[in-house]
Specification:
Strand content: 15-25%
Distance between the termini: 113 Å
CATH class of the largest domain: Mainly Beta
CATH superfamily of the largest domain: Jelly Rolls
CATH architecture of the largest domain: Sandwich
Shape: elongated
Number of strands: 15
Number of helices: 15
CATH topology of the largest domain: Jelly Rolls
Order of helices and strands: HHHHHHEEEEHEEHEEEHHHEEEEEHEHHH
Helix content: 40-55%
Amino acid sequence: MPSLVGSVVLLTLLWVLTFVLGRVRVLQSWRYSRWIPGMVFFRVSLTAAVLSRILLGFGLQGDLFNWVRLVEIAAFYVALVEILLDLIWIVLERLSRRGVSPPRILKDLALVMAALLVVAAQMKTQGLLTTLGSAAVLGGLAFVVGPGSASQVSNISSALTVQVERQFRVGDWVEIDGNIGRVDNVSWNSTYLYDDLNDRLVVLPNSLIDSGKIINFSRPTATRYRLDIEVGLPYDMPPGEAIALMHAVLDGHRGVVDPSSSQIYISSFADSSITYVLRFFVRDFASRGRMKTEIFSSVWYAVERAGYSIPFPVVDLRTHRSSSRVQSDRQNIMQEESFRVLRSVPLMSALSDAEIRTIVALDPVLSFGHTEPIVVQGDVGGSMYVLLEGVCSVLVRSGSNSEHNELIEIAQLTEGEVFGEVAALTDAPRSASIQAVGHVVLQEISQHRIHELFRSNDAAMAAFAEVMAAREAAHRQFTADETKAFQVDLVERIQRTFSRLFLMD
């Protein structure tokens, strides 16, 4: 009797251990979690083993005891078969060129068949494969299959069709019966889609696969997903200019795959605008919402910088005079803000208030949206910029031999900071790319405007070079002699650049 109690305690501890291991397997909290076998059949076997020991302790060794022993042994053998199938699936996944294991439903089918064979063999061994035993098994199958058997058969048939024909697999982005999501699982009865936009799981009966339309966004390639967006632009903007502007937006966005394959065409002439369709590709289907937002935003800013506006159907009761007055007031406010910021910039200290007001009156204030490129590393500069509002990211390529190297952020610029001055003053290539972070407003100072300032202000060129040399000295930790040499060299380069402009006049 003590040995019987000890075995019950040991089996109970093992039964508790199955729950712990099962939890680790589900949470994937251990490096080798995927190697832990399924615990369901072990748990059934241990439960039956504890029950059989209890029955044995009370001297109950009839038909009930035999059936419990059958469950104990059969569940144990089925658990071993499941371990073998898990190992086979892991090996097949490793041997697959694409790192994809065979369909899960085939493993489930193999496990069911093995379970039926094990149960039948155990029943025959213990003499339980009688009329009563067969009736019990068939009754259990009738209970499982009976309700809705036609739909169940249809769902299973569709699941097998998917696995054999490979219409889609786990991880693919698909649309089934109007539902868009990533395939998370295909079971006997249902297909599970993860809807990333609403962060929910959509469960569809497999029968919809045969009756509905399926769109697989991940085929034939899982690295190119097409997006189409519609944009309405004003009639007074020439279509050639509009198409070129939107191509520039797509070419400048890092998330667009192979911009040369992008297409822009006119869809229709609407009541208040010309409707254009932008067709392009992205690498990650899950980024489609963010990409559409960024492209829409970039188009708005590009259209605004080009001097147009996105049209909308309204009844405008304003007169031309009132509209001009509103626009003039807005421009005056922007010029005053630009003057305030430029007046505080050390580089502009050699300029008079009148010269700075000339800059803000004649050179444009530009707006950029999130992730839009402002200058590109390697391009020859023609303007410098002062940041009036927002934040800009300073990016450099990770290598020098390829145009497709990853851009790495090395710094951020805030209000009042100047960039592009070396390229504008010396015609040197841009040393870094500048990209907008959120909404950004800039005062552009063109090379032509700088040329006019230097012609009227003899001290401005030397003052610019002195400030730039002092800033470079602080950055590179120059000595006094090195700072002076850098300043002299900078003045010579500025003189060579602007002497060409003087000659053009």
